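Hey team,

Filing this mostly as a record. A colleague (T.K.) asked me to run one chain through the structure pipeline before their review meeting, and I want the input and output archived in the tracker in case anyone asks later how it was produced. No errors, nothing strange. Just documentation.

Input sequence:
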Amino acid sequence: MVLIVVTQFFTNKSTTALTIGNRQAVKTFLLNNSIQDLVNTSFDLEGKFKNSSIISDKNNLRPLADSLTRLGYHAYVIVNNGLPEGQDIAETINNIVDSQVYISERIIKAAKSSNSSQLQLMTDSLRMLKPGEKVYENCLKLQEELKSNLQQTLDKNSDQAGKLSFSTGYWRFFPS
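Output structure:
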């Protein structure tokens, strides 16, 4: 009877560890998707905001503002759902995105008011900031952290699956 209780305890412990590991793996994949969208959006917006023909058409300003919102959302997701190991990198990415959004919003405001000197100043600021490049570099670092963490999770899951298999297979040697 004691053997049954002990085996059940280890089975429950292994099952819980596998569940936690699987949730961590899903979280990692979701974060990776946000990272990829963040990088693509950052580069795309940087290019559009540096293109005077796009900015001069006031019909483009609303969709650009909406894209800035999406960019900020992905940065928020990365910072608030990231792994503790990559939190510093996520904060750096968020700061870069905040700067990109701020400058881009100022570009929109200058374009709406036809303030060409402010528009030129903000466009030059965006060029010097190179947010797409900085976001990309830091996202690569964050993805390395996620990859390492995911590998540890998968290794732990494999270990727990082996323990679970052993504890449930143990009873095959002892007929009822």
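Quick notes for T.K.: Residues 62 and 148 are 39 Å apart (CA to CA). The chain has a mean pLDDT of 84.
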